[in-house]
């Protein structure tokens, strides 16, 4: 249940449009497009937004864990029902990192979201605070409304302010494969596929710039394992184009495989995070 925000960082920086607080857990409805690639052990340039790139607790390998590469993923998500309303999202999970759990010297490898955009302030704030997800704002354009049974889709992602750039920094074109039947899928199958479902996020720092109250800090390290089920997953072709002419490094030069997953009518549960090592 969402409540008016009472976080000190926002009380000290009042906004004409108050941000709502929506603590975990969340249950959401969405449509997703998953694009995969295999990276080496060097993070691509611009894998972090400038705020996180300058935050040692999030991006310094000595403090946040060494990047080990592996299976990377780009996700585009269209949320139709969440505790903070509908919104769109672009996600980069470049692979796995070494992580030492609270009170343990044992190192395990976990996936991590290093860069992510959303088009709504409420989810930007709550994603950072609840789970340490480094959300920032952007604008999205889709050629079709969510839920329509179309065979193709064009997605464009722009910087957050129309005056900063008129061209998208990322364009994705999707085309469903003909004659390939859809199938159901649950992330409960992940361990059987050799995938660790839990994400571990290092501590986030808040922005100190006026007017960026949605860029709040997290409580410390966060570990959580989202669960997702979709009754209809289709194979699709993906063409991803990055525009370097849109100014600052808004997105890394990551080139996913041409085959992707088109995930429809999905239900996702995002539990309360296990946290440690707070400020």
Description:
Helices cover 10% and strands 42% of the residues. It has 279 residues and is mainly β. The strands form 3 sheets. Strands 3, 4, 5, 6, 7, 8, 9, 10, 11, 12, 13, 16 and 17 form a 13-stranded mixed sheet that branches. Strands 14-15-18 form a 3-stranded antiparallel sheet, with no helix packed on it. Strand 8, helix 5 and strand 9 form a beta-alpha-beta unit. It is globular. The N terminus is likely disordered.
Give a short summary of the structure.
By secondary structure, this protein is mainly beta. It contains five helices and 18 strands.
Which parts are unreliable, with pLDDT below 50 for 5 consecutive residues or more? 1-14
**Share of helix, binned:** under 10%
- Count of beta strands: 18
Order of SSEs? EHEEHHHEEEEEHEEEEEEEEEE
How widely separated are the two ends?
Answer: 27 Å
Strand % is: 35-45%
Largest sheet: 13 strands, mixed
**Alpha-carbon Rg, integer:** 18 Å
Question: What is the number of helices?
Answer: 5
Question: What is the average of the pLDDT values?
Answer: 90
Supply the helix-strand structural class: mainly beta
Shape: globular
């Amino acid at each position: 249940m969402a409540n008016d925000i009472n976080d000190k960082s926002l009380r000290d920086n009042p906004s004409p449009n108050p941000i709502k607080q929506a603590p975990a857990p969340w249950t959401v409805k969405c449509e997703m497009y998953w694009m995969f690639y295999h990276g080496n052990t060097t993070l691509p340039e611009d894998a972090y937004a400038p705020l996180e790139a300058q935050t040692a607790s999030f991006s310094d390998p000595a403090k946040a864990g060494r990047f080990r590469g592996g299976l990377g993923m780009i996700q585009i998500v269209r949320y139709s029902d969440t505790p903070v309303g509908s919104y769109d999202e672009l996600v980069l999970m470049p692979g796995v990192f070494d992580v030492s759990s609270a009170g343990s010297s044992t190192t395990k490898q976990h996936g991590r979201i290093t860069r992510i955009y959303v088009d709504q302030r409420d989810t930007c704030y709550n994603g950072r605070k609840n789970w340490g997800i480094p959300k920032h704002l952007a604008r999205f354009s889709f050629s079709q409304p969510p839920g329509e049974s179309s065979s193709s889709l064009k997605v464009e992602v722009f910087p957050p302010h129309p005056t900063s750039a008129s061209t998208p920094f990322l364009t994705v074109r999707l085309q469903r494969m003909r004659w390939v039947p859809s199938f159901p899928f649950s992330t409960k199958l992940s361990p059987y596929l050799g995938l660790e479902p839990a994400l571990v996020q290092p501590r986030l720092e808040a922005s100190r710039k006026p007017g960026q109250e949605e860029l709040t800090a997290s409580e410390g390290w966060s570990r959580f394992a989202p669960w997702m089920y979709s009754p209809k997953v289709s194979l699709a072709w993906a063409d991803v184009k990055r525009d370097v002419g849109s100014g600052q490094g808004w997105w890394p030069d990551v080139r996913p495989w041409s085959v992707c997953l088109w995930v429809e009518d999905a239900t996702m549960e995002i539990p309360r995070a296990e946290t440690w090592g707070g400020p």
